[in-house]
Design goal:
alpha/beta; binds guanosine-5'-triphosphate; 7-stranded mixed β-sheet; binds zinc ion
Length: 521
C-alpha cells in the first residue's frame, strides 16, 4: 500500500471543510458554488492520489530493460502533483525565471479548472460573424498554448493517437511547428450566412480551412498553436466503372469534368475533421449538455476530464473520423439556388467501397452517385458526393463481420436482417444522421434537387435542418449485386424510400441471401 501523501492530507482536510460548509448551506447560492469548487478540488486530489499510487507501486525489473538515464525520467516516475494556485498550467512553477521544459518531462496535468491560476482561454463566440470576435479553435497542450485552450480533445480525430505514438517514440519533436506555406484552399468556398448561425453548424469549424491565415497573429506574436481542421484541394480521379460508363455511352467526356475516354474526372475535394460545439450537439440529440459531457467522459474511458471540469470550454475535438466532400464542376454552383444539385451522402463501407464485396449495395450506389453527380455538373448544375467515415453504420467492422457470420450460419432472411445486428450491438444503427447536414450548410446548400439515397434517416435529418429535397432516386435494380437483395429489401421494409410497392413480412421472409455452403462450390 502506498504511504499517505500530500493528496491524502489535503483531501481529508477539505472533506472536513466541506462537511462544515454543507451544514451551513441552506439556500445560500454563493456557498453552494463554493462547495462545488471544493468538491471539484477534492475529486481532483483523489485522482492525483490514484495516479501517485500507480506511479509509486513497486515495479518488477525487466532483465533486458536498459537502465534509465537519470536526467530524463519517464513521466510515470515523477510524483505528479496537483496544480496549486502558484503553478502555471504548462507545468512549470510560476517563477519568472523558471526554465521552460518540454511538456513530456514536466508535471502531469490531469485536468484544469476555470478559475485556476494561469487559465486564460482565447475568446470563442461560436457562430459570431466576425472571425476576430469568433476566435480560433485552440486545443493544443503545448506549453505555449495550454493556458489559452478553448477546446477539449486533440487535432486529427482518430489520428490523434498516431500523433501520440509519433511523439512517444521520438519520431516527432514536440516543438515541431507546421509550415503552412502554399497549403491554402485550392478553391474558394463561402462565406455563407449559415457559417454564422450557431445552430446550423455544430460539428465542424466553419473557419477550419482558413484558421492559420485568419488568426496568423496568434501564431506569430503569441506562439499559439492553431491548425486547420479543413483542407480543400483539387485532383483527378479514375474509377474503372466510369470507363465502362463512357464505353457504353451513358457518360460523355466533355474535356472539363469528365476529361477523357477512360472516364477520368476533375474533382475538388474537401477533407473535414470534427469540431463539436457541445451545446449545439446536445440540442441536436435532444439531450442536455451535462448528460452529453458526462457520457462522452465515461464512454471514452475517462479520457477527457475537462469535459467535466471545464464547463466554460464549449468545444470538443472528438477522436472520430471525419468526412470528405467530392465536388464535380464549378464549386460556386453548389450554393447557387438557380441550378440543379445532385447529391449522394455516403457512409463508409470499406469491404464494398474499396474491396468490392457483393453482400451490400454500397460501392454500386457510390458509383451511381458519382456518375449522376458528374452528369448534373455537365448539364450546368452541380454534383456532390460526401463520404463519411462511419464504417458499419458506425458500429465498426468487427461488429459487422460478426453479423455476417450470424446471418450466414442462419437462414439469412431479409426479415431478420436488422434483428441480427440488434442482437449483437444492441442497436441496428449508430450513425445518427443528426449532425450530417452541417456539411451541407457549410457548402451553402439550401435545397437538393436530386437526392441519391433511399435512407429515411438521411432524408429526415436534412429536411429537419430546413433543406428541402425535391426528388429521391433509388439505386437502379440492375446495379444491385446478387447477394445484397437481403439488405436492400430489409431496408425498404424498415422505412427506406422505394419506388416499388411495399413488401409484406411474408414476402420478406422469402428473400434469402447466399449461404456459405453455396460459396464453397
Ligand atoms: N453493421 C452493419 N453495417 C453495414 C452492413 N452493410 C452495410 N453496412 C454499413 O451501412 C452503411 C451504409 O451506408 P450508406 O451506403 O450511406 O447507405 P444507407 O445510409 O444505408 O442508405 P442509402 O443512402 O440509401 O444508400 C455503411 O456504414 C456500411 O458500412 C451490415 O451488414 N452490418
Ligand atoms: Zn456495404
Amino acid at each position: 500500500m502506498a504511504a499517505p501523501g500530500a493528496g491524502d492530507n489535503m483531501a481529508s482536510v477539505m472533506n472536513e471543510v466541506l462537511s462544515s460548509l454543507k451544514a451551513l448551506q441552506h439556500d445560500n447560492a454563493q456557498l453552494a458554488s463554493a462547495i462545488d469548487a471544493i468538491n471539484g478540488r477534492v475529486n481532483m486530489l483523489a485522482g492525483v492520489k490514484q495516479v501517485h499510487d500507480v506511479a509509486s507501486a513497486p515495479r518488477k525489473e525487466e532483465p533486458d530493460a536498459e537502465p534509465k538515464k537519470p536526467e530524463q525520467p519517464a513521466p510515470a516516475d515523477q510524483p505528479p502533483s496537483s496544480p496549486s494556485s502558484s503553478d502555471q498550467l504548462d507545468g512549470t512553477p510560476s517563477t519568472a525565471t523558471a526554465p521552460a521544459r518540454p511538456a513530456n518531462t514536466s508535471k502531469i496535468i490531469l485536468t484544469s479548472y476555470p478559475g485556476q491560476a494561469g487559465i486564460d482561454p482565447i475568446v470563442m463566440n461560436w457562430g459570431h460573424k466576425d472571425p476576430n470576435q469568433r476566435g480560433p479553435v485552440v486545443v493544443s497542450r503545448h506549453p505555449s498554448t495550454i493556458r489559452r485552450r478553448n477546446a477539449i480533445g486533440a487535432h486529427g480525430g482518430s489520428y490523434s493517437i498516431y500523433h501520440a505514438l509519433a511523439v512517444a517514440s521520438k519520431n516527432l519533436r514536440l516543438d515541431h511547428r507546421p509550415d503552412f506555406t502554399d497549403t491554402e484552399p485550392a478553391a474558394n468556398i463561402g462565406p455563407f450566412p449559415q457559417w454564422s448561425d450557431p445552430k446550423k453548424i455544430v460539428s465542424m469549424d466553419p473557419l477550419g480551412h482558413l484558421s492559420p491565415w485568419l488568426f496568423k497573429e496568434y501564431i506569430t506574436e503569441q506562439g499559439i498553436e492553431i491548425r486547420p481542421t479543413i483542407a480543400v484541394t483539387k485532383a483527378h480521379m479514375k474509377l474503372p466503372e466510369l470507363e465502362h460508363s463512357v464505353k457504353s455511352g451513358r457518360l460523355k467526356p466533355d474535356g472539363k469534368i469528365c476529361i477523357n475516354e477512360s472516364g477520368e474526372l476533375n474533382v475538388t475535394k474537401v477533407a473535414v475533421e470534427p469540431v463539436w460545439y457541445l451545446p449545439g450537439v446536445a440540442e441536436r440529440f435532444g439531450i442536455d449538455e451535462g448528460t452529453l459531457r458526462r457520457t462522452l467522459f465515461e464512454e471514452t474511458g475517462g479520457s477527457y476530464p475537462e469535459l467535466i471540469t471545464r464547463g466554460d470550454i464549449k468545444l470538443f475535438l472528438p477522436p472520430i473520423g471525419g468526412l470528405t466532400v467530392y465536388c464535380f464542376g464549378d464549386v460556386a454552383k453548389m450554393s447557387d439556388p438557380n441550378v440543379k444539385l445532385a447529391l449522394r451522402v455516403h457512409d463508409e463501407c470499406n469491404g464494398s467501397d474499396v474491396f468490392g464485396s457483393d453482400i451490400c449495395t454500397c460501392r454500386p450506389y457510390l458509383i451511381f452517385g458519382v456518375e449522376e453527380a458528374v452528369k448534373q455538373a455537365q448539364a450546368g448544375g452541380s454534383g456532390v458526393v460526401i463520404y463519411f467515415r462511419k464504417e458499419g453504420r458506425a458500429l465498426g467492422e468487427v461488429t459487422k463481420y460478426l453479423v455476417y457470420n450470424a446471418r450466414k450460419r442462419g437462414a439469412d432472411r431479409a426479415s431478420e436482417y436488422f434483428k441480427r445486428t440488434e442482437n449483437i450491438a444492441g442497436v441496428k444503427d449508430m450513425r445518427f444522421q443528426a449532425l450530417m447536414p452541417d456539411i451541407l450548410h457549410w457548402l451553402g446548400i439550401t435545397k437538393i434537387d436530386r437526392m441519391l439515397s433511399m435512407s429515411n434517416m438521411k432524408h429526415d435529418a436534412i429536411v429537419e435542418q430546413g433543406i428541402p429535397i425535391h426528388e429521391r432516386i433509388p439505386i437502379p435494380d440492375d446495379m444491385i449485386p446478387e447477394d445484397s437483395r437481403v439488405e436492400i429489401d430489409a431496408k425498404i421494409h424498415a422505412g427506406y424510400f422505394s419506388t416499388g410497392k411495399a413488401m409484406t413480412m411474408e414476402e420478406l421472409t422469402k428473400v434469402h441471401g447466399r449461404a456459405w455452403d453455396d460459396l464453397d462450390h
